[in-house]
Design goal:
With about 325 residues, this protein is an alpha/beta fold. The protein folds into 2 domains: about 5-135 and about 300-315, 3-Layer(aba) Sandwich (Rossmann fold), CATH 3.40.50.720; about 140-300, Dihydrodipicolinate Reductase, domain 2 (2-Layer Sandwich), CATH 3.30.360. The chain has 14 helices and 12 strands. The chain has helices at about 15-25, 30-35, 65-70, 85-95, 105-110, 115-125, 140-145, 160-170, 175-185, 195, 200-210, 230-240, 270-275, 300-315; strands spanning about 5-10, 40-45, 60, 75-80, 100-105, 125-130, 150-155, 220-225, 240-255, 255-265, 280-285, 290-295. The protein has a 6-stranded parallel β-sheet with strand order 3-2-1-4-5-6, sandwiched between helices. Bound molecules: NADP nicotinamide-adenine-dinucleotide phosphate. NADP nicotinamide-adenine-dinucleotide phosphate binds next to helix 1.
């Protein structure tokens, strides 16, 4: 390994994703150092409730995010709190202090793309968010390789809860039973509104469109809730060799972007029709590169930690700026 100085990482959030990042540091530190080409050190993690028991290795825990942001030994801030407040202000504070930011926070990136990218540019630091769309599946990295092509459309299954519910309904479960099952299996939140009504997928779709260089905002995505899809419509689709999935689709026609999320029929034998849980499927249709499809685990602590640490390693290796500048 080279003799470059070590890089300090500070975690904001130590829930499902943050704990998986901390455990990965604890379990394979040497492997991460080799991949990064220099030592990586997990300095500390900020949480809301320090008394909560957690499986997160032996990372020091604080209740004050600014203890991490103001620590000169922290070079990269990994924000896995989620939502807009206080994450938005914490991102800006990190850039003001000259830190790079890595996040899985799709809502914040989708809503505040311009502000965050400008802050990253001004501070000459990187903002990376591979984990924010399809977790471990490298769709953001993939989209960034398409700069020479004219992308015509991006479509996919971007929400595991909806995919799980659709796969259960095609087997005869009612919407309510399928949702209950998704909650019991740990796919759906106690409040599944964001998944069922398409907001979560809309955030991810917006990020993909922005990475492809087109304008987009979550408010402009037309959303149809999965709640209105009946068992009868699934039965009718299945009888025709088809099924229903909640699809996120953006059609990129010249300068115009038309984006929608909601239940649509797909071929039962397709990758989308065959997906049954947290598996995400993302397809780019382009002129030069033809049709490119990515598929893999789009949720869960370890899969999301994989993408986050991939971003950390890219920064450590001095990868090109990902601010979208
Ligand atoms: N879970 C997934 O599979 C997945 C996949 C892809 C992307 N993501 C994204 O990753 C992010 C994190 O998701 P998650 O599932 O890990 O969430 P989570 O389990 O709810 O964890 C959130 C963490 O943030 C901490 N927190 C909340 N408010 C805070 C504050 N004001 N200051 C400091 N810490 C605070 C919480 O502290 P306490 O522990 O003390 O409550 C908790 O540790 C979200 O943006 C989510 O959309 C998640």
């Amino acid at each position: 390994m080279s003799r470059q100085r070590s890089l300090g990482i500070g975690l904001l959030g130590l829930g499902t994703v943050g704990s998986a990042v901390a455990r990965t540091f604890a379990e394979r530190s040497r492997h991460l150092d080799l991949a990064a080409g220099r030592p990586l050190r997990l300095v500390a993690a900020a949480v809301r409730d320090v008394s909560r028991p957690r499986e997160a290795g032996d990372v020091p825990i604080t209740q004050d995010p600014f203890a991490i942001l103001d620590d000169p030994s922290v070079d990269i801030v990994v924000e896995v709190i989620g939502g807009v407040a206080p994450a938005h202000d914490l991102h800006l504070a990190a850039f003001e202090r000259g830190k790079h930011v890595v996040t899985a926070n799709k809502e914040l990136i989708a809503k505040e793309w311009d502000v965050l990218h400008q802050a990253a540019r001004l501070s000459k630091r990187q903002l990376r968010f591979e984990a924010s769309v399809a977790a471990a599946v490298p769709v953001i990295a993939g989209a960034r390789t398409l700069g020479a092509s004219h992308p015509r459309a991006v479509r996919g299954l971007l929400n595991g809860t909806s995919t799980f519910i659709c796969s259960r309904m095609e087997s005869g479960a009612t919407f309510d039973d399928a949702l209950l099952e998704a909650q019991r299996a740990g796919y759906a939140e106690a409040d599944p509104t964001s998944d069922i009504d398409g907001l979560d997928a809309a955030y991810k779709l917006v990020i993909l469109v922005r990475v492809l260089g087109r304008p987009a905002h979550p408010d402009d995505v037309q959303r149809t809730s999965l709640r209105g899809t009946t068992l009868a419509s699934f039965q009718a689709a299945v009888a025709r060799g088809r099924t229903i999935r909640s699809l996120a689709i953006a059609e990129l026609d010249g300068g115009r972007v038309r984006a929608r999320v909601g239940p649509e029929e797909v071929a039962a034998a397709s990758l989308e029709g065959g997906a049954s849980g947290p598996t995400n499927v993302v397809t780019f249709e382009t002129d030069l590169a033809g049709t490119l499809t990515f598929r893999g685990p789009g949720a869960g602590g370890p899969a999301t930690a994989s993408a986050i640490l991939g971003d950390v390693i890219a920064i450590a290796r001095g990868g090109a700026s990902m601010t979208g500048a």
